[in-house]
């Protein structure tokens, strides 16, 4: 009987802890009577965003919460990018706990990937920037004046290490690289990114290219080996085109690995090069097939 009671108590404690860890944002109660009409649980970095949108004044009160981490050695930020979905050009709010235990919160325009989140003014008015610690949660507050007729924004949230009260670069892998979305303050929800399906097609494209070039390379390798043994496999231009295609595939793989970031000015030259070689390879492949019919 005692064993059953212990098991029941253990399971009850387990489910209560699980529920508390997975508490949705709309169940959270802020101290001091603060309330927010809308909120979303962000998909990464244990963050939640709460806000009140005031359509008459075109302002929004925001609160970013981050929990279940060691806040004393980490910084956190939330930003809006008025021009793109990337990090560069975003206008950020930053918060962390200093070595002496005091909290600091400020604004920081991000102009490069080498930023250390220095203090600076943003292109729109921001008031009431502050931050607090509540248990294992860090919370940052601010009121933003959005540009006229703006209700949908590209927003980013981030966290990283803190060394000597100076924010350092966040990790360049895992959830830190996907912490950006499009948010509709008025509708109170995330905007579905239609480019996500495009990204999935890019992954499929890469897999098919890898398999295709691997298969082509294997076939051409066998043909070259047979040719070296003196087998009559119809060499000539057909064989040379095959070798050229194998070379194009290798070049595409190397260049793809060194692909510039999509916000880099050199990206346009990469796109021209990549597409030219890709369509050229398709044309040569088709020509090689028809040449093979006459061997």
TrEMBL record:
The chain crosses the membrane at residues 203-228, 240-257, 269-293. Residues 45-160 form the DOMON domain. Residues 1-22 form the signal peptide. It holds the Pfam family DUF568. GO terms for molecular function: metal ion binding. Heme b binds at residues 205, 274. GO terms for cellular component: membrane. The keyword Ion transport does not apply. Keywords: Electron transport, Iron, Membrane, Metal-binding, Signal, Transmembrane, Transmembrane helix, Transport. This is DOMON domain-containing protein.
